[in-house]
Amino acid sequence: MNKQGTSILLAEDNPTNLFYLETVIKKHFPSITLLIAHNGVEAIEIYRLYCPDIILLDLYMPLMNGDVAAAEIRRCAGDLSHHPIIIGLTAALPTAKADLFKQHIDTWLTKPITKEQLKTLINKQLETISNHQQQIATPYSLSHYDFQELSISLGHDKLLIAEVLTYAINYIHHFPEEVNTLIEQQNWSVLVRLAHQLRGAALNARFPLMAHLAYIMEHQVIFNKETILKQLEDIKEEAKVLLSLIQPHIGSQVV
To answer: Is 44 left (phi over 0), alpha (psi -120 to 50) or beta?
Structure first.
């Protein structure tokens, strides 16, 4: 599994439908990674690799129909403890199969699909995902800083410890300014990349809580200025705590 950020899998074999849906999604949801499959077999393979959050699945495709692919994706998701939202795309929903569809498919769109229908449904599902993430409270039982683990991992080398800590705290120190610029530009893709780098620096320096705060920003579902600014304030407050904790090990090396 190669999971990073919010993603949508679009599985559609009709070139015209694929072009239309792909265009709408890219235009109105530019910060979301869009993955493409042309049949049910490809949809399963892509799901196994990337675990997309939302799956738009044509129910009638070559090699493997969408309802069969949905059942296999649900099985894979269970093995990975993942909970994708599966949306069926269909010209008509046969009454005889309605109960079967409901076992594996959360909802569906009936073709022809309008731009507003697609936007409304995706926004609704993104809100559901966002609410679910917000319900997972930040584990403040996480420590701010684990010096013992860092020291052991670096062979108790004081100079190397100071170097790793200095790099991490300097990255954290400059992070808010860069993020504020990206917020004004609404450049969410670069913001996600910076948050990912912040998480890496925090993990290397053994800052568990900071790594978690960076993870929340990196995996943001609905991007808006107020939400990101609130997350940024949490990061800035944690940075103050960390600086006081690591000061004895780095001296005055923050720039």
So the answer is: alpha
